[in-house]
Amino acid sequence: MENIVEFNNVNKYFKDFSLENINLQVKQGQITGFVGANGAGKSTTMKLMMNLLQPDTGEIKVFGKDYANHEKELKERIGFVYDSNVFYESLNLKDIRKIIGPAYKNWSDSKFYDYIKKFELPLNKAIKTFSKGMLMKTSLAMALSHEAEFIMMDEPTAGLDPVFRRELLDILKEMMEDGRRTIFFSTHITSDLERIADNITFIQSGKILFNESIRDIQERYALVKGNANLINHDIEKYFISMERSSTEFQAITNNAEEVRSLLGDQVVMEEASLEDIMFYTKGASRQYV
């Protein structure tokens, strides 16, 4: 399967933060969820993908090409869906179409009007009257109207009510049915990713902890609960984080099969959600594999 985006040993240094040795692949025709705490490096990574920042070392390729020689061509194929308004507030959608449409060689007026109708957006009302959900749909309609193949979404469901969030997720799933598009979806709402994502990339403190299929994550990670007497040095090494009292422990493992083999029915093992993984690995110092 082709990689739409490839980061190879990418480093980006700031005064008080850095992305270190980032190796990342975004696979064609899939939805990749991008998770991490505030300040983990999500926005910096996405800016590097868009060429709004350049790496200090390492290589970034999009559709197999670099921005240095192919920036205009690449940006024709990318759509970015913002989490806030980026349009002039006094304009309406007809006005915005006149400004944005000519910038893209693949722009389709017919698709634009089709998506505006499908998303139930008003053509003649000023953007300043739009809700957050309507602004999200507007950005998405713009991206789809110029046949964007790679769509980047920054916190698209944040601040939306549950009904609207579900509607947006259904729209994204429908968009993916023909296999021509790829979505990179940054969010704090991990339950949304568990509903629609194919792959998950988890970044913490400027480092990628894992970048793999959600199915593999569900198989590898587990919450483990049991009697504290079971814990010794040999067992503890299979846990990436653990809470322990005098009588009981609760831990998370990224090697569920081995823990199940060693401890069997002496412990209770539960599937770890993405939220569990983020919570328990925060601050953990163990090397992830």
From TrEMBL:
Q: Name one Pfam family in it.
A: ABC_tran
Which segments constitute the ABC transporter domain? 5-230
- Record organism: Oceanobacillus piezotolerans
Task: Respond yes or no to whether keyword Disulfide bond is given for this record.
Answer: no
Key words of the record: ATP-binding, Nucleotide-binding, Transport
**InterPro entries hit by this protein:** AAA+_ATPase, ABC_transporter-like_ATP-bd, ABC_Transporter_VariousFunc, P-loop_NTPase
Which chain positions lie within coiled-coil regions? none
What Gene3D superfamilies does the record point to? P-loop containing nucleotide triphosphate hydrolases (3.40.50.300)
* Record protein name field: ABC transporter ATP-binding protein
Molecular function in Gene Ontology? ATP binding; ATP hydrolysis activity
User: Which PANTHER family does the entry mention?
Assistant: ABC TRANSPORTER ATP-BINDING COMPONENT (PTHR42939:SF3), ABC TRANSPORTER ATP-BINDING PROTEIN ALBC-RELATED (PTHR42939)
Q: Which domain of life is it from?
A: Bacteria
**What SUPFAM superfamilies does the record point to?**
P-loop containing nucleoside triphosphate hydrolases
